[in-house]
Amino acid sequence: AQTVTQSQPEMSVQEAETVTLSCTYDTSESDYYLFWYKQPPSRQMILVIRQEAYKQQNATENRFSVNFQKAAKSFSLKISDSQLGDAAMYFCALLSGNTPLVFGKGTRLSVIA
Amino acid sequence: EAGVAQSPRYKIIEKRQSVAFWCNPISGHATLYWYQQILGQGPKLLIQFQNNGVVDDSQLPKDRFSAERLKGVDSTLKIQPAKLEDSAVYLCASSLEKGTGYTYNSPLHFGNGTRLTVT
User: Fold this and answer.
1) pLDDT mean over B7-24
2) What single DSSP character describes residue A97?
3) How many CB atoms neighbour CB A16 within 10 A?
4) Would you call B44 and A42 a contact, using CB atoms and an 8 Å cutoff?
């Protein structure tokens, strides 16, 4: 079975600082994909960044980057230069085989001005 | 492009009543998903359509939940009768992908969801 674990229910960061959100996963598939989604109070899930498991290079999208450790099955999200608009729930998600996208329980990020 | 539209935004019903949610995906998106998001958890897939056919409904409680996408465009999700544990946000999503679950190159686009409270 595919599982995703986010061990930090809540995190906070000062504006302009850097924060890292943790995610670990488990799958028996060799070919899979990992995602981070952001869910603001509007409830709409927004794709932040995605990573192909076969790629060793960590994905980056502007201020967002990941640290993908395949052997450890770890996929953390780093947000640099945090902004007030980054405050939201963040979900890590796994897509493998023919199973539906599996989400973790989320981390609530607060940004302090 | 217009996003995924969902209605209503909020719904409050008593247990044993019925309720329906509506979703209009992004134009041209073949695949439509309904997710249930219970407070404090990540979304869980209830059902996936490709055009008007069901691809995956393995986690849909079929004794009380039903969904349809008759013309391969918009979709309705119904609960009858509702239970207290059905209180959740119901998210609709769509993607261009015509495959069966491979959404890497065709990311999911989510609507704003319907928050259901069952009292």
Assistant:
1) 97
2) T
3) 11
4) no
Q: Cβ atoms within 10 A of the Cβ of B37, count?
A: 22
Q: Which residues contact B101 (CB under 8 A, 6 or more apart)?
A: A95, A98, A99, A100, A101, B48, B55, B56
The C-alpha of B81 sits at a distance from chain A's nearest C-alpha, in angstroms, of 25
What's the rounded Cα separation, in Å, for the pair A81 and A96? 32
User: Exposure string (b/e) for B59-95, b if CB count within 10 Å is 16 or more?
Assistant: ebeeeebbbebeeebebebebeebeeebbbbbbbbbb
What residues contact residue A71 under an 8 Å CB cut-off, 6+ apart?
none
Chain B contact for A45 (CB, 8 A cutoff): yes
On chain B, the residues whose CB falls within 8 A of the CB of A106 are: 40-42
pLDDT (tens digit per residue) in A41-87: 888 899 999 998 888 899 999 999 999 999 999 999 999 999 999 99
Instruction: For residues B34 and B57, give the distance between their C-alpha atoms in angstroms, rounded to a whole number.
Output: 10
Question: Of the candidates A43, A50, A103, which has its C-beta nearest B42's C-beta?
Answer: A103
Three-state secondary structure readout of chain B: CCCCEEECCEEEECCCCCEEEEEECCCCCCEEEEEEECCCCCCEEEEEEECCEEEECCCCCCCCEEEECCCCCCEEEEECCCCHHHCEEEEEEEECCCCCCCCCCCCCEECCCEEEEEC
Q: Which two tokens stand for residue B74?
A: 């918009």
Which has more confidence, A73 or B51? A73
